[in-house]
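User: I'm new to structure prediction. If I give you an amino acid sequence, what do you actually give back? Let's try with this one:
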Amino acid sequence: MTTVKRVSGNYEITTLGNTNVNITTGTVNVSGNVISANLSVSGIVSFPTANITANNITSNSITSVGNFITTGTFIGDGSGLTNFPAANASANRIQSGTSKVDLPNISGNIQMDVSGVANVMLLTSSGAILPGNITTGNILTNNYYFANGVPFASGGTVTFDAQNTTPAGSTAGDFWFNTTNGIVYQYVDDGDSDQWVDITGIATPPSTTSTVANTVVQRDTNGSITANVVSCAETTATGNISGAYVLGNGALLSGIQTAAPAEIVLGTSLVKVVTASGSIQANVAGTTMASFTTNGFQVGNIVNQNATGVGNIGNASNYFNRVFATSTSALYADLAEIYEADDDYEPGAVLIFFGVKDVTTTRHDHDPRVAGVVSTNPAYLMNTKTSGVPLALTGRVPCKVQGPIAKGDLITTSNTPGVGQMVDSDRWVPGCVIGKSLEVIKDDSIQVIDIAVGRY
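Assistant: Good question. You get back a string of structure tokens that encode the predicted 3D arrangement of the chain. For your 456 residues, that looks like this:
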């Protein structure tokens, strides 16, 4: 439609086969109603008393003294709208039925009403305030969850104990306020197991934190630190650092007294340097137990902390020169002395004084030159600086003997090299006896049995 129209009644615009009407030029003045499916106007449409009914209205400018009614939504820039009722404050509200979102104040809170229920949620600069319930999947936060003022964790009820001793029967997530030191702990997994961990300063952690696993740091209200292990590149403290022991390189420590600490004390036990560059003294429970001097180590008692017979003073390759002491017992049974031998004879062999060296093996029975038996483990060994074999001179010692022989029989040399036998009284000569048998051999076999070495 391209011409000027003045209509005093209703003006229904239709075209054959098409419900769309375009007004492209001129001015349309309608005092009645305009009824159209789609109305597009490029000029000015004035409806002084008319109502407009249409699915879609597209125009550069629409002026009406009547009402615009739509079952849809008005879309566009509403900054030019005027004469809004104060009760609706429509420029600060989104509303549909009895549900709405209000912005009562400029840059203020956002208020949400649902189905006529006011303040279902209030958004403030501090966060969201919900007086009702929350129904959701997961709630994620970097801090702690609280319900009625009590922190809670998933999977069960969390307890909050205030007492001066560690609560018993605690489960993961529980809290404990220590009434002695004023520290709040939580029972959490530290990587190995559930532990009580100080969370007093959790809201304001230090600028640098430890990356060492299983390091539990406890902070009290004075900023002191108590821990099993504290690992860091550098520690700066305005207070004191104390502990049972302080380990590490103290080369950079400052403020140490010129006199230097001469004692390490814990209770009545101490280690001290008695004089400058002098001896070092160790006191246990107030009693001096040991001293280190230029002459060596001085001690009252030496007590073996191992089982009986376990532990040595020195060793076979690096032994002490002399021991000045009174011996009341010995582990082994015989007294032996080192003699040079013409061969490396095994323990239990019977030897005689003969040959190019001190001793050699036996070759004849009832030999009065018999010297003794090669010792297995002598209780006391003499002449240790000489090379040779340890020859048992007296005492109990294992010996090679050919039977038969009874307990208590005298033993002498035999024709078998290194082997003893029972003395034949008809062949006995002075000096041929080496000892007495302590065991029995019923046949003529050669066995190693215990004998008592001695001149009988």
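You can read the tokens as a compact description of the fold. Here is one thing that stands out. Residues 145-227 form one domain.
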